[in-house]
Design goal:
The complex is a heterodimer.
Chain A lengths: L1 H7 L13 H31 L2 H11 L2 H28 L6 H26 L5
Helix pairs in contact in A: 2-3, 2-4, 4-5
Chain B lengths: L3 H31 L3 H9 L1 H29 L4 H29 L2
Helix pairs in contact in B: 1-3, 2-4, 3-4
The chains are: A mainly alpha, B mainly alpha.
């Protein structure tokens, strides 16, 4: 009885049922970039431990960082930090009860994606000595 | 448990506010620091401003990361595995705090 009833109960709406919106994407990306930063900080601490105590570990970390794979890792980390930083400010603004109207939230979501991409390009260009 | 959620919520916002300005500094310096050689990297970390800000970023960041990852674990893991992951998450945060403080201190003062 209980089984046949529960099998007929509707499930709560899940990811695939919603129309895709930029605000929803920004929410998912905020969580995703948080995970990327978790991993990135872990690797930076290994690099730091190498610099302080184990030169061979530093050379391994440095070798990876300076390879093409390292460029992708650094670019991903920088973009993620910029996105998480600016979307975090968006969250803090929401915490004050403002900026929650759908039009405003949609606009600021696009703004965060665009600014993160432009600033990441500038920081990578400068960080790799593009300005020197 | 019923009162802990509010303090966790507040600590996550508080660490976010502290991290925002430090993250801007971090973004300016980290790419060239990470791609520099051993001696240059150590000299960059040994600079008192860089050492203090890098330490603050990693230590406050470790706590912010721990809370964020805890929320993700709470959302998706509902078995005994949850407690194991909580423990690992704690150890990662503590490890980052101890290792970064120790490493920066060592580079700055122990040569």
């Amino acid at each position: 009885m209980a089984d046949s009833l529960s099998s007929k109960r509707p499930l709560s709406p899940h990811l695939q049922i919603w129309r895709f919106t930029v605000t929803m994407a920004a929410s998912i990306t905020h969580r995703g970039t948080g995970v990327v930063l978790y991993g990135g900080v872990f690797l930076i601490v290994l690099w730091l431990i190498g610099a302080a105590f184990y030169p061979p570990l530093f050379e391994t970390a440095s070798g990876i960082v300076r390879s093409p794979v390292g460029f992708i890792l650094i670019a991903g980390f920088v973009w993620s930090l910029l996105f998480h930083l600016m979307n975090g400010l968006r969250h803090l603004y929401w915490d004050t009860g403002r900026g929650l109207a759908p039009k405003t939230a949609t606009m600021t979501a696009w703004l965060v994606y665009s600014a993160a991409t432009i600033l990441a390009a500038l920081i990578l260009w400068a960080g790799y000595g593009g300005g020197a | 448990m019923s009162t802990k959620g509010t303090s966790t919520f507040i600590i996550q916002r508080f660490t976010a506010v502290l991290l925002a300005p430090i993250a801007i500094w971090f973004l300016f310096g980290i790419v060239s620091a990470l791609t520099s050689d051993y001696a240059t990297a150590r000299a960059w970390i040994a600079n008192p401003w860089n050492g203090a800000l890098l330490g603050a970023f990693l230590i406050i960041g470790a706590w912010h990361m721990r809370i964020g990852m805890m929320e993700i674990i709470l959302d998706y893991i509902h078995s005994w595995l949850k407690d194991v992951l909580f423990l690992i998450n704690w150890l990662v945060a503590l490890g980052i705090i101890v290792a970064s403080a120790w490493a920066i201190f060592h580079i700055s003062f122990a040569g």
